[in-house]
Amino acid sequence: MRGAARQPLSACGAHRGTEQTKIAELPREHAQQTPRAMKRFSQRLFGKGGQRASGGGSSANKSDAQLQSESKRIVRFQGIALVFLSKVRDDVHSGRAASNVELVVAEEDLSDAVKAGATIRREGANPDGSFFGEVAYVDGAVEFQDAQVRPKARADWTTEDVAEQHVLPATMRQRAFMLDKIPQAFVGPLFKGVFVSQARQCRFGDLVAALEHHFRGQDPAKVFVWLDVFSANQPLLTNPDEELTDDVVAQRDSLLTSGLHEAIQRFDERLIFFDKWDDPAPLRRSWCVWEILGALSGEHRDLRPVFAPGQDDAFLEVLLDDPDKVTQAVADIDTRKATCFKAGDKAMITRAIKRTLTQGFVTLNAVILASLRDWLAEITHAAVDKSRATNGRSTNHARVCAQAGYFLTDQGALEQALRYYEEALEIGRETLGDRHPNVATRLNNIAAVYRAQGKYVEALRYFEEALEIRREKLGDRHPSVATTLNNIALVYEAQGKYDEALRYYEEALEIGRETLGDRHPNVATRLNNIALVYRAQGKYDEALRYYEEALEIGRETLGDRHPDVATTLNNIGQVYYSQGKYDAALRYYEEDLEIGRETLGDRHPDVAATLNNIGWVHRAREEWSAALAFFEEAFAILLERLGADHPDTKDIMISVEKCREHL
Question: How far apart are CA 560 and CA 568, in angstroms?
Fold first, then answer.
C-alpha cells in the first residue's frame, strides 16, 4: 500500500479558523511503504472482460419488441407523460383521487405486525368507540384508538400510498396495468423517455416536484416518465408467490437477472430520486439498488440524481457546518443493509448480485459509492454557483468556496478544490486585507493542495506567507503558528530534507508543550510526526522513544481504544517491521486492528491499512497463504470504499497477485 494508509492525525485535530473554515491539515503517512511492481490493475468489476455478466444471456441482442414481449405479464417499458403525473399528484393532494380514503399514521406499536409509523386506512368505528382499518400486507383488520394515531395529510402520501389507494383499486379487478386506465395520449412509446428509480416510502409529491424541476423548460406533455407504480402490473406483483403461475414466476426471474438491466439501458435517460441527500431511501431498498446497478453497469453508465425540494439548501447547510459530515454520509452507505418487504425478493436479489458481479456486494458498493461521490461533487459545484449568484464577492461566499474546497480535497478533486480556494483567497484579500488571519487560513489550504499534488515549491511559498501572517497577527507562540510549522515540516519531509523537517517539527512541538501542556493529544501528534522522520532516517531507537511517549499521552488523554492510539500502535509496528522484528510488529498491528474494528467498523479504509500491514509481515516471512488472506480482505474493503482506480486499491491488488504467484 502506498505511503498513507490510515486516516491522518492532523497537527491541530479539528481546529477551525475564525470563519469556521476548516484548516486543511496535511495527511501523515503511516502505512508500510512498499515497492511498486510494474503491473497494471487487472481486476474487472463486471464479470469477464469488464462486462456485466447477465443471468439471461443474450438480452443485449434482442429487439425492443422482443425484450418487451418476454416481460409483458409483469411490466411494460412505457412511461407516462409528466403532465399526467402532475395531474395525479394534484388530484391526490386535493382529494379528487381516492376521495373516500382517510389515512392515519400509528403513533405507537399497535401489534407485532403494525409498528409505530405504519400507515393505516381508516375503515370504520366499533360500537365501543375504537376504530378499525387496514394496513398494506397485513392480514386482518387493525384495531386502534383515536389517540394512538394521527391524521396523514395528503401532501404526505407516499408513492406506496398512491399505489395502494389509487392504482390498485383501479386495476385489481381486471389485474390490469395502470397504463391501460389512462388516456393513451399520455402513454409514451416503447423505451421513450426517462427511467426513474425511486423508493416507494418517499412522498409522491416530492418525487413529482423533483421531476418537474429537472425537466423545467421542456413540454411536460412530451416528457415520458417510467415509474413502476404505473408501468408494472401491481395486482400481480402484490400477490403472494404461491398464487403466481409458473410462467409469471419465470418472467419475473428473467426480468430480475437480465431483462430489467437491459431495459433500463434502452431508455433515453436514467434518473434516481433522492428524498434526502445524506440518507437516500433508494439505497436502503434492495429493488432500487438493483435498478441502480443496471443503470451504472451497462453501455451508458449514467444515472443522475434528482432531489426532493429543499435538499440543496440542506446540503449547503451541512457543507458550511462541517464538510466531514458529507464524507461520512458517503462512508456509511452499505447496500448489504438494503431490505425488501418480501424476504424471497431479497434472497433473489442477493443471489443475482453474487452471481452477476465479481465480489458481489463489494463491487456493488464500489460502483454506487463512486457515483455518489460524483453526484455530491456536482451538488457542491451547484452550491458554489448558487452562492456566487446570491452573495457575490462577500465573506459568506468565500466561506462557501473554502468549505467546498475542503470537501473536494478530501474527495481527491484537487484541481477543482484549488480553484475554489483561490477564489476564497481573492475575496479574503479584497474584504479583509492581505494580513488577516483568515487570509492565512486560505493560503494554508492552497498550500495543502499543492503539497498533495507534489508541487513542493508552490506549497512552501504559500505556507511561508501563511506563517508570516500568523506570526505577525497572532504571535510567535500561537497554536495556529505551530500548525503552519507542522505543515512546512511535512513538505520538507516529503522532499527528503529531514533536518529541515525536524527543525520545524521541533518548534511546533515546543509551542504545543508551552500552550497546550505536555499531555495534550496534539502534543502526541507532534511526537508522532518527529518519530516518522527518525524512522525514515533509519534511527529506530529515537523513533521508538518519541512513539512511546505519544502512545502514553494518547492512552492517558483519549483512552486505550481511541483510533489515534491505534495509529500510534501502527507506527510502532512499522518500526519493528523495518527492523525485521516481525513478532513485535504483529503484536502492535493486531492491537491496532482490534481497536480499528471496534471503533471504525470492519469496512473502514484504516482497517484495510492495518490488514495490509499484517499481510506484509506474512509476506516478508514467505507465509504466502496467510499474506494472501489479509491482502484479499484489505483489497475488498478498499475496492468497496475507495473504488478500483484508487492507488491504494491498485497497490493491494498487486500484492494479491504476487501472493497468488507463489501458491
Answer: 11
Using the CB atoms, write b or e for 292-313: b if 16+ within 10 Å: bbbbbbbeeeebebbbbeebee
Phi first, then psi: what are they for 281, rounded to 5°?
-60, -35
Q: Where are the alpha helices (DSSP H) in 520-604?
A: 521-536, 540-558, 563-578, 582-600
pTM score over 0.85: no
Task: Give the H or E element holding residue 358.
Answer: none
**Which residues have CB under 8 Å from 142's CB, separation 6+?**
110, 111, 114, 120, 132, 133, 134, 135
Inform me whether the pLDDT recorded for 441 exceeds 70: yes
Grid cell locating 660: 497468488
CA–CA–CA angle 461, 465, 469 (5° rounding) = 170
Closest CA to 225 of 240, 211, 239, 243: 211
- The answer to whether the beta carbons of residues 362 and 636 sit under 8 Å apart is yes
Question: What's the CA gap between 642 and 634, in Å, rounded?
Answer: 11
Write phi, then psi, for 239 (nearest 5 degrees). -70, 145
Give me the phi and psi of 475, to 5 degrees please.
95, 155
pLDDT score for 204: 98
C-alpha cell at 431: 474584504
- In single-letter form, the type of residue at position 278 comes to D
The mean per-residue pLDDT over the stretch 372-382 comes to 85
C-alpha to C-alpha distance for 301 and 293, rounded to whole angstroms: 9
The values of phi and psi at residue 95, to 5°, are: 95, 0
Phi, psi (5° rounding) for residue 134?
A: -125, 145
Q: Give the model confidence (pLDDT) of 590-636 as tens digits.
A: 999 999 999 988 989 999 999 999 999 999 999 999 999 999 999 99
Q: What is the DSSP string of 73-118?
A: TTB----EEHHHHHHHHHHHHHTSTTTT--EEEESS--SSSS-TT-
3-state secondary structure 161-188: HHHHHHHHHHHCCCCCCHHHHCCHHHEC
